[in-house]
Prior knowledge:
The chain is α+β, with helices and mostly antiparallel strands. The protein has helices at residues 2-16, 69-74, 91-105, 108-123, 158-165, 175-181, and strands at 20-22, 25-27, 30-33, 36-48, 53-62, 79-85, 133-139, 142-147, 150-155.
Amino acid sequence: xxxxxxxxxxxxxxxxxxxxxxxxxxxxxxxxxxxxxxxxxxxxxxxxxxxxxxxxxxxxxxxxxxxxxxxxxxxxxxxxxxxxxxxxxxxxxxxxxxxxxxxxxxxxxxxxxxxxxxxxxxxxxxxxxxxxxxxxxxxxxxxxxxxxxxxxxxxxxxxxxxxxxxxxxxxxxxxxxxxxxxxxx
Length: 185
């Protein structure tokens, strides 16, 4: 009897580990990166311009959930941010947003030391259409990333991983997205 109950509970648990849906995007609650299971920390929608246009669903995956920005940036690797686009974005708009976020989040000295790596990262950017995705995997060895199914990296090192990840959390361009990714919404 107890074995049946435990079996039933384990099946219910397995069935309850599913994707959430944000703005029509299915967001898995767990993923695997570098042979480690990461859990969904939170998701939110990136809004742009004064009109608050929905651009993409951003999702943060970590080894352990936290709402603390310092922990997000300092927890052990791997980590992942998924950007699932819900509208078209030109290559120039995307690069402009990366530059704006990087400048706001990363100190002038650090930007100078990471400028070549960041330039290499930006060279791979492309126009994004609705339903396209960018996946950024933050590793000790640097950043591996996938743009529309094409894999790149790793580039940089742990310093570039931390700097790029900080775009969503230090002087965030969209506080609602930041709070969603921190699991505060």
